[in-house]
Amino acid sequence: MRYILLFGCFILAVVSCKNKTENAPDVGYDYAPERLGKYVVYDVDSTIYDDFNMDTVYYKYRIKELLEDEYVDNEGRHGIRLVRFIKKYNDTVSYDNIAWEIKDVWNYTKTSTALQIVEEDIRFTKLVFPVREEITWNGNANNSIGDWQYNYTSTDRAETINGTAFDNVLTVTQKDDKGNNKIHRQYYVEKYAKDVGMVYREIKDLQSYTVTAAPVENRISKGVIYKLNYVTHGYE
Question: How many angstroms separate the CA atoms of 217 and 214, rounded?
Fold first, then answer.
C-alpha cells in the first residue's frame, strides 16, 4: 500500500510539473529571434529636407539584416553581430540583378529582460521583457541622447505589413512629440513580428520656420521622413 501511495504522489508531481511547463507565460522572446543565419529584407524610402541648400532629396534602397555570428562583449554578455547589406535603387535594373554590399555592422544583444541593439556605436534598448501593453522604459538609458520613454502601444495583434500578413505584431512607440511650439514634430515607431523581428520602422523628425495651425508635415523647413518596410525573411 505504501508503494502505491508513493507511486501516486510521483504521478501527481509529474503532472503538476508538466502543467506548470505547459502553462508557462509567454514573455515575448519570439519577437526577437536570435538564431544565427536569420535575415530580414526591407525596402527603405527616405526624404531629407535640406534648409541650407533649399533642397529636398529622396533616397530609395533595399536593406538586408543578417544575424551572422556570436561574440562576447566587454561585459561578458552573449551578443550577435548584425551585418547590414544594401542595394541602391536603380529604376532601370531590378533589385534581383543588383549585388548586396556591406553597409554596417551592428551589435544585437538579447538577455532575459531586454533586447539591445548598438547602431552606429549608439546602444538602444529596443524591447523589454515581458512584453505587455502600456509598459514603458527609457530606450536611451545606455546612450547620451536623452530620456525617451518607449512604450508598447499594442501587442500580439494581427497586422499586414507591406502586403504580408502576420498573426502577432507588437508596436513600440519610441517618441511621439507634436511640439507645443508647433514648429517641431518627432515621431519614432517600430513594429516587430513573432519569429521574424522588426518588420516596420517610421521616423519623422521635422522642423518648420513658420507657425500656423497646419501640421508641421504640411510646412516642412528641414528634417527627415524615413520608412522601412518588411519584404521577406529566411535563413542562410
Answer: 8
